[in-house]
Structure formats: structure tokens, C-alpha cells
Amino acid sequence: MTERGVHDSTHAQNRDKGQNDAQGRDQDQDHDPDHDEDENHDQGQNQGRDQGQNNGQRHDPGPVQNQGRDENRDRDRNQGRDENHDRDENQNLDQGQNQNQNPYQDREKDSAMTERTSTPVAEFGEEIRRRMAEIKTYVAPVLRVDQLTPRMTRVRVGGPELAGFAGGQQADEHIKLIFPAPGRSVPVLPTFTLDGLRYPEGVTPSHARSYTVRRYNPLTEELDVDFVIHGHGRASEWARSVKPGDRLGIAGPKGGFLPSPDVDLHLMVGDESALPAIATILEHMRPDVPVRVIVEVADRDEEQELRTEAAVQIDWLHRESAGTPSLTEAVRAMAWPSGLVSAWVAGEAGMVRDLRRHLLRERGVERRFLRATGYWRQGRTTDEWAAEDMVKLRAALAAGKVTEAQILNGDVDLDD
């Protein structure tokens, strides 16, 4: 799965995460998987994500999962969580978001996730704490490594160590991956808290990021996760050098949803970090259901075969080719169908935010049929993004702008 940051943001009705892994995050990715209105959905379920997406990793900001998923894309903050929120400041929004620019810039840097004390904050309630406490963790061996494209690597882990893992039942599920600390061969599993990941005293914290569950086979107890390889982020470096027998920590799964049967068209939009999640959604589509997919990748070599029984049209946008429209431009230019449209959007948070607003305000997509999740943010590390979102979330809760029920359902948009 590609890494998804801490905010798996709000899902149209709330959201989910993934992750599986690509562009601006740790960049290994799906989803956790940070998330916008859709993305916030997951916000209720995940926490934490690596800097900007990029490895397929998902941004995940809050205590629960957020952004756009039916409980999805919980996503990742190194000390904090796996779910994402499409959030950014209008001015920063894209100060850097040119879809055609290279999203794989090495921005992975450690940042303190400290909250500002000048803003009123609120504590989360027992239900949120209970869900955090229920997150299950595993350490399993790597079984095989496959190079899907020049920049996408699939890692399979599994064995009896994954007994009880409850993934593979829905689309767009996300997990938090826990990598061994430098100099160690086995990751130390953390305790999940509302203030971040907690490790035993004296133990060097492991690197943790949110990714999408690409595939899980409960019969063989094998889990596939896709990583977008770029730069020198820790997750990317791990994916470059991983070999069978290496050990990987897994927490989750969280989020996940099943495509609604009550719409006339399913629209899915994302960059390579969203490809693992898009693939799982397509695999859960009913036969002959109309689907439109718009995906941005570096070039033709990064295109993948996406299997589905749906009646799907896939538009591949090559970011490195001159004149290629951005994802936002492509969606704005498309002929809009009549009838109900379900939209799923994931990738760079500024892009997700803009498309979410476009779909709600200009296209008339119903909130319950929109999942928008930011997996990474241009110009921000995952930890920075997660810290900002947590401050916003606590402040909104203290001010009465959101309720715990909304957080649990992923129905939170920190940008509005």
C-alpha cells in the first residue's frame, strides 16, 4: 500500500488509508492514512503518515481515522497516527501543488509534533480511546518482493504471525507499517495513544507510516503492500533493500468500504500513491458497473494493469510529459454524466481539497457519495502535517465545531 498519512480524511459521508503508496508522502505507498472531508472519514480511524505521500503511503492525522473513507484511510504520523485529513492552508495549498511537477522530493525530516498551548484544546472521549486500544499489532516475515514498475515495489509478508489479521474484506483498508529502527532487524511495536505512538523507555522509536492493504489472503495468511519508491525516505530505503526473511511490524487494519450500488457512475481520481487503493476498489466493483478512473503517474512505464469486472474507462496522465493536464484540470474538463455520481479522490492534499470543493459545490456530488483523502502534502513532512491537523482537530472539538460522533464517523473537514 502506498503510504497514506495521518489523515485518512473525511469520506463523503466521512471517509477512511490507506495505501497503498506513492507521491508526496513517505512515498512508499495506498491511504492511514490522512483524509479530507471524505478523508476525515478515516480520520476517525487512523493516525499518522509520512511526509508527503509518496511511497504509496497514506497520511493519517488523528486519533481515529479520517479522510475520505468509509472508515478509511486511517494514515500515519511517526508519533502519532495513521489517518488523514485533506488540510492545508489556502496559501500553502499549493504553493506547491503543480500536478506536473515532480512530487518525489526528499522532504522526509524529523519534526517535533508539539501542540500550541495558545489555542483551546479538548480531550477525546472514551469511545475514541477504546477504538485506539483495540488496534492489533503483528510482526511478520517478508516472504517475497516484486518490482511492479520501475517505481512501484510490492512486498508480501505473512505466515502464522498474521493469524487473526482481519484485512481483505473491503476496499481501501489501511494499516500502519512499523519498520525496524536503524541497526535493528526486528521492529519494536508501539502502543497507540491519542498523543502519538509510545515506545518502551530507552527504546529507539521505530519509523511508522500508513499504507493501503493491497491484498490479503486469509487462507494463506499473506499480506501484500505496494510501495512507491522515490528519494531517500526511510520507508523508500527500506523497500529498496528489503529481502525475504526481513521482519516488518503491522498495525490494523482500519477503514475500508464497499462501493455503493446506488449510483450511476463511480469516479476515482488519484496519483500513484492512490493506485493500490484504486486497484482494491475496482476489484470490489460489481460486473458492468460504469466506472471512470483518472490516474496521474510519472510516465507510461508506471501504468499498471487494473483488473475489474466493471465497465471501466481509465485515463492515465503522464506527469513528466509536456502539456499533460493536472488531475484537477482533467476532472474539471470532463463531461459530467447525468444521474448520481460517487467520487473517490486521494493523493496530494491540496489537490484533494480543491477537487472535493469542486465536486461538492460545482458538480453537485452528494456528501454521502464523496470520499476525499489526502495521502501527503506538498512541502510538508508527514509529521508536520499530522501535528498541524491534530492541533486543528482538538481546537475544533473544544470550540464545538465538531463532535466526537463526527470524528468517529470521519465526517470532519478541517479546511472548511
Give structural notes.
- With 416 residues, the protein is an alpha/beta fold.
- It has helices spanning 90-93, 126-133, 234-241, 275-283, 327-333, 349-362, 382-398, 404-409, and strands spanning 3-6, 42-44, 57-61, 65-66, 137-149, 152-158, 171-179, 191-193, 196-198, 207-212, 215-217, 222-228, 247-257, 265-271, 290-297, 311-318, 341-348, 370-376.
- Strands 10-7-13-5-6-12-11 form a seven-stranded antiparallel beta sheet.
- Helix 5 (327-333) runs parallel beside helix 6.
- The longest helix has 17 residues, at 382-398.
- It is globular.
- The relative contact order is 0.25.
- The model is unreliable at 5-53 and 61-119 (pLDDT under 50).
Low-confidence stretches: 5-53, 61-119
Radius of gyration: 18 Å
Shape: globular
The SS-based structural class is alpha/beta
Topology:
Layout (H helix, E strand, L loop, with lengths): L2 E4 L35 E3 L12 E5 L3 E2 L23 H4 L32 H8 L3 E13 L2 E7 L12 E9 L11 E3 L2 E3 L8 E6 L2 E3 L4 E7 L5 H8 L5 E11 L7 E7 L3 H9 L6 E8 L13 E8 L8 H7 L7 E8 H14 L7 E7 L5 H17 L5 H6 L7
Parallel strand pairs: 1-3, 14-15, 14-17, 15-16, 17-18
Antiparallel strand pairs: 2-4, 5-6, 5-13, 6-12, 7-10, 7-13, 8-9, 11-12
Q: Any descriptors?
A:
single chain; 416 residues; alpha/beta; seven-stranded antiparallel β-sheet; five-stranded parallel β-sheet; 8 helices; 18 strands; globular; Riboflavin_synthase-like_b-brl; NADPH-dependent ferric siderophore reductase, contains FAD-binding and SIP domains; FAD-bd_FR_type; SIP_FAD-bd
